[in-house]
């Protein structure tokens, strides 16, 4: 299996600088083709519009033959360091039915098999052990068990993962690069849409007929777990309402001075 040391041996800062003026398509192509020569790369998506855009770009690479279908992993067992690209979702057990319907639509349209990474405990098992509605009493602990731990397991031994953040989302993310080293999980991170705006995302979606979550037409702007998501503006208004929390913790670096701190899928 690919080791974190391999990721460290790649000069991620140099790559980030080299691709600063490159398109999102070029960044995605490099991650899917050049980087997979050295190890496994995972696109992690929560099926937000940005993630759907990147999936469409990957589908374009498949259609053109630039990315051979054999390089796209269909399950976790294929991610063994041989150098494949995978598309994965953290299946918390609390996702909206519209989110799961979108997952099925993306698979049908593009011929993907999106890996659903699940936590150790099912929702009933977690309720039995920690009490019902842990997400209300201790959302940080719930996020840790249902998102952070599964993500750490998913990324262990991988070369890099692909995120869908944009610089214009927060002041912290304004420092992020197209390629960088993730000090939290000890592997490379690729951010193809780093220079895009929300308008760029939706222009691409409409022009390329990319499926998206229908909840976005109902006042939701950031969609996560159903119990912790409500209609509102971006993450601050729509996630963990009534709590001083806008991040699940997946993308907070050990130090915010280290390459941008918070990242959102």
Question: Helices and strands in order, then pairings?
Answer:
Blueprint (H helix, E strand, L loop, with lengths): L3 H6 L2 H7 L5 H11 L6 E4 L4 H16 L20 E6 L6 H14 L4 E3 L5 H8 L3 H4 L1 H17 L4 E3 L16 E4 L4 E4 L7 H11 L25 H5 L27
Parallel strand pairs: 1-2, 1-4, 2-3, 4-6
Antiparallel strand pairs: 5-6
Helix pairs in contact: 3-4, 4-9
List keywords for this structure.
Rossmann fold; 265 residues; alpha/beta; globular; 10 helices; single chain; six-stranded mixed β-sheet
Give structural notes.
This protein is an alpha/beta fold. The protein has one domain: Rossmann fold (3-Layer(aba) Sandwich), CATH 3.40.50.620. Strands 3-2-1-4-6-5 form a six-stranded mixed beta sheet, sandwiched between helices. β5 and β6 form a beta hairpin. The radius of gyration is 17 Å and the shape is globular. The two termini are 25 Å apart. The C terminus is likely disordered.
